[in-house]
Design brief:
Length: about 200
Amino acid sequence: MNKKPIGVFDSGIGGLTVVRTMLKHLPYENIVYFGDTARVPYGSKSPQVVREYAEDITKFLISKDVKMIVIACNTVSAVALDVVQKYARIPVIGVIIPGAEAAAAWTKKKRIGVIGTAGTIASSAYSNALKLINPELQVYSRACPLFVPLVEEGWMDHPATEMIAKEYLFPLMTEKIDTLVLGCTHYPLLKDVITK
């Protein structure tokens, strides 16, 4: 058994939602987590800048002798997965394909909403992945750029967060989606507000 740790990184605290799930399913694994709170959010940054950040963090995690890397950040998974794979030379897992597979399996009406950062939505990574899985899927995407700063501020239950969520999500509800992809690891921390 390989005792080396698994490296996980995200633009901030959102990736801890991925770590929590990993620890639930892999309780004996050690994890090295890098949350880039100094440069959060990534979703509003250019793909080139995100790619540079991904390279820097990958080099850091490799210096910690990790056996694999999990990119918990949807924006990095969408625009810089290839960068991490190039520098890591160990197994690398992003979050786009697993998220798309889960959504495609879950939907009954084949109408899927995707919310994410501006960078993730602009990349069309989820739409492309979902269409590859099933070309019949209807995908409706919406950038929700204020969600990450609200989570980082700790405003998960703030009235302003609820108002912003209503504004962002109303267009998706009019499309009669039956499945919603939370395309940012910060967004599960807003699950109660989003569900409401």
